[in-house]
């Protein structure tokens, strides 16, 4: 990756992080309700019985109420657990929803760990992002967990990134290691950008 691209990514991430920190509690609550509704509709549209999702931090568009509701409805939800080697393990979300602080301070499920290939069996992937552009290029937070996961999957189901409305943009800086997503979920809409990946 060139220095110019790395610098552009760093600058954009810092701007987005700051913008997220400034959101009011009411704006966060409204966003979580919107994300919940959009994800419910997406799961129904795909007839998904097994999905991957993530436990949102306080700065991210909220996914936790959706995860709890999906589990209560009998949908198998795999949640990511970070590893030191840059890959993701997975754990099945439970009704108890026990959570611990994982690597990098991220909220992660407590439970039996499944290896990185467990995600190969899901019908739909729902992943975090800092921003996504109109070509489906995703800007993550710089650690590469999801780019490695998506890049290593044999048969990748539809992948939707969750962002706030203002984070769906015309273009994000990218390099050859970055992976595109199928679509974007925001609090107000679901946008499908590309056909299902390979």
UniProtKB/TrEMBL annotation:
Would you identify the family this protein belongs to, as annotated?
A: Belongs to the 5-formyltetrahydrofolate cyclo-ligase family.
In which domain of life is the source organism classified? Bacteria
Entry keyword set: ATP-binding, Ligase, Magnesium, Metal-binding, Nucleotide-binding
The protein's Enzyme Commission number = 6.3.3.2
Tell me its cofactors: Mg(2+)
Quote the protein name from its UniProt record: 5-formyltetrahydrofolate cyclo-ligase
**A GO molecular-function annotation:** 5-formyltetrahydrofolate cyclo-ligase activity
Catalytic activity field: (6S)-5-formyl-5,6,7,8-tetrahydrofolate + ATP = (6R)-5,10-methenyltetrahydrofolate + ADP + phosphate
Keyword Coiled coil: yes or no? no
Read off the InterPro entries from this record: FTHF_cligase, FTHF_cligase-like_sf, NagB/RpiA_transferase-like
Does Zinc show up as a keyword for this record?
no
UniProt-listed PANTHER family: 5-FORMYLTETRAHYDROFOLATE CYCLO-LIGASE (PTHR23407:SF1), ATPASE INHIBITOR/5-FORMYLTETRAHYDROFOLATE CYCLO-LIGASE (PTHR23407)
- Which residues are noted in the entry as ATP-binding? 9-13, 138-146
The broad enzyme category this protein falls into is ligase
Q: Which GO terms describe its biological process?
A: folic acid-containing compound biosynthetic process; tetrahydrofolate interconversion
- Kindly give the Pfam families that the UniProt entry links to this protein: 5-FTHF_cyc-lig
Binding, substrate: 55, 60
Stored SUPFAM superfamilies: NagB/RpiA/CoA transferase-like
């Amino acid at each position: 990756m060139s220095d110019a691209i790395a610098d552009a990514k760093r600058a954009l991430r810092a701007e987005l992080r700051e913008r997220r920190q400034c959101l009011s509690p009411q704006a966060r609550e409204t966003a979580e309700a919107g994300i919940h509704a959009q994800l419910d509709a997406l799961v129904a549209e795909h007839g998904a019985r097994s999905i991957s999702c993530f436990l949102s931090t306080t700065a991210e568009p909220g996914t936790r109420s959706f995860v709890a509701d999906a589990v209560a409805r009998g949908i198998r939800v795999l949640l990511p657990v970070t590893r030191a080697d840059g890959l993701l393990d997975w754990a099945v979300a439970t009704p108890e929803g026990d959570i611990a602080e994982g690597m990098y301070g991220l909220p992660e499920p407590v439970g039996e760990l499944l290896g990185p290939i467990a995600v190969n069996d899901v019908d739909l992937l729902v992943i975090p992002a800092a921003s996504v552009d109109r070509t489906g290029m995703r800007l993550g937070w710089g650690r590469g967990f999801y780019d490695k996961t998506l890049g290593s999957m044999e048969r990748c189901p539809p992948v939707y990134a969750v962002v706030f409305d203002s984070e769906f943009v015309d273009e994000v800086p990218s390099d050859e290691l970055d992976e595109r997503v199928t679509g974007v979920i925001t609090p107000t809409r679901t946008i499908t950008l590309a056909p299902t990946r390979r």
